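can u do me a favor
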């Protein structure tokens, strides 16, 4: 992927997504502005922990940027290096994108702001939303997600229930499990009950697949996720796996690689798929970036990931 004039300001990818195929990411907030500071975050610890909603993106500049890209994608994905619902007036952004492009629009969100009616209404134009719900009990919610002060897990659940009532698009609810924190029988039972009330189109079980923001944060095995999945009986359950999407052929430059890794730490095979280069050529390129101190390797769950310093 390349622009006609300069490096992208708002977009990144296409990302080889385990769920969405080739997805062009749209980064709606500064790094790392979020209302959570999750133990498992793959970006980095949150240094701007708040819920102030302002307009971070110039809509016309974003549209011009997307038009300048030479990409073949499956989705436009509202996401990024922070919580995307912290961008204000999302309804205006979604309307503008739909006017200009035929791609379906998806948002990845931590769900917290869905407890507010005005935010729920701003998102009605989405084709798909992938909200998160990692805990129902308040103590586990605070331990795994570390929210801004005053947010109750029960309010997050109720926000998802209310959103389902008015949203005509698809809802894929994601639950990410961290070993020893939200995988107890009690918490899984609470999550299963919440899923039955929320009524998403499907549930996707995930775990710590990339180097987390905080140490001591470990994944569940596939078998453990399978066992949990059998306890959620009200809706279809997926266990997110490695995506085998065909190569997209993004332009191999220092800027392209670092912009990708800032938002999504990746292993060699993923980068090979994204940038569609000879394996030897890519290894030499990544080695050069390592030597210059631009990227570094981190081992997580027995896999090597390339990252950019926070």
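np, heres the sequence
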């Amino acid at each position: 992927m390349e622009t006609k004039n300069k490096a992208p300001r708002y977009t990144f990818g296409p990302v080889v997504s385990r769920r969405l195929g080739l997805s062009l990411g749209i980064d709606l907030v500064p790094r790392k502005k979020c209302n959570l500071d999750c133990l498992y975050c793959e970006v980095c610890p949150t240094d701007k922990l708040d819920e102030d909603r302002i307009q971070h993106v110039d809509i016309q500049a974003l549209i011009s940027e997307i038009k300048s890209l030479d990409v073949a994608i499956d989705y436009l994905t509202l996401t990024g290096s922070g919580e995307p619902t912290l961008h204000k007036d999302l309804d205006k952004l979604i309307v503008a994108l739909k006017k200009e492009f035929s791609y379906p629009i998806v948002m990845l969100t931590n769900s917290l702001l869905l407890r507010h009616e005005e935010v729920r209404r701003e998102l009605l134009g989405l084709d798909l939303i992938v909200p998160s719900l990692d805990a129902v009990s308040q103590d586990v919610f605070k331990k795994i997600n570390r929210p801004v002060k005053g947010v109750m897990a029960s309010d997050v659940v109720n926000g998802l229930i209310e959103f389902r009532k008015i949203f005509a698009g698809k809802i894929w609810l994601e639950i990410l499990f961290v070993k020893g924190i939200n995988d107890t029988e009690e918490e899984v039972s609470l999550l299963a009950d919440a899923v039955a009330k929320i009524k998403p189109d499907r549930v996707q079980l995930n775990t710590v697949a990339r180097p987390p923001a905080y140490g001591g944060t470990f994944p569940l095995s596939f078998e453990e996720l399978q066992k949990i999945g059998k306890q959620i009986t009200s809706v279809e359950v997926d266990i997110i796996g490695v995506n085998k999407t065909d190569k997209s052929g993004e332009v191999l430059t220092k800027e392209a690689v670092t912009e990708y890794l800032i938002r999504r730490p990746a292993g060699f095979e993923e980068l090979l798929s994204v940038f569609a280069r000879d394996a030897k050529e890519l290894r030499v390129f990544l080695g050069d970036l390592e030597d210059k101190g631009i990227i570094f390797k981190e081992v997580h769950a027995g896999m090597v990931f390339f990252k950019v310093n926070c």
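Residues 1-5, 242-249 have pLDDT under 50 and may be disordered. hope that helps!!
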